[in-house]
Amino acid sequence: MAKNLVINGKLIGSAASDAIDIMSNGHVKGKLTYEELTIEKGAVFEGETSQISQQKATETEENNRVQKSNDSKDIENNNIVTDIEVNGLKS
Q1: Which pLDDT score, from 0 to 100, does residue 22 have?
Q2: CA geometry: angle 7, 21, 67, nearest 5 deg
Q3: Residues ≥6 apart with Cβ < 8 Å to 47
Q4: In angstroms, rounded to a whole number, what is the distance separating the alpha carbons of residues 66 and 14?
Q5: What does pTM read for this prediction?
Q6: pLDDT for 6-57, tens place per residue?
Q7: How are the residues of the chain apportioned to helix, strand and coil, as percentages rounded to the nearest 5?
Q8: Which of 14, 21, 22, 75 is buried most deeply by CB count within 10 Å?
Q9: CA nearest 26: which of 4, 2, 45?
Q10: How many C-beta neighbours within 10 Å does residue 41 have?
């Protein structure tokens, strides 16, 4: 699981990270699992959230890998999302 996930575009599906920041241009539709969540003014969020402890975050990382579209890159510590489809969901 990434330490930080910054969303400044469209994310459709599920994502898990220690810290998730949805920037003012961010649009999220799906489920977010996090320890810390920040949503800037102007951002759009549709879906559900689940706050977890560090121990649960490690379990989530091991059990639920986020499937990313062919165009996305897996970045270990800092993920910046501009546009991504997750788990085959489309807008």
Answers
A1: 96
A2: 50
A3: 28, 29, 30, 31, 32
A4: 7
A5: 0.62
A6: 999 999 999 999 999 999 999 999 999 999 999 999 999 999 999 987 556 5
A7: 10, 55, 30
A8: 22
A9: 45
A10: 5
DSSP readout, 44-67?
EEEEEEEE--HHHHHHHHHH-PPP
Q: Would you state the structure tokens that stand for residue 49, as one six-digit string?
A: 């959230």
Length of the chain equals 91
Residue 20: how many CB atoms within 10 A of its CB?
A: 26
Helices (H) and strands (E) in the chain, counts: 1, 4
Q: pLDDT tens-digit profile of 53-74?
A: 755 655 655 655 554 443 344 4
Break the chain into its structural domains and give their ranges.
2-85
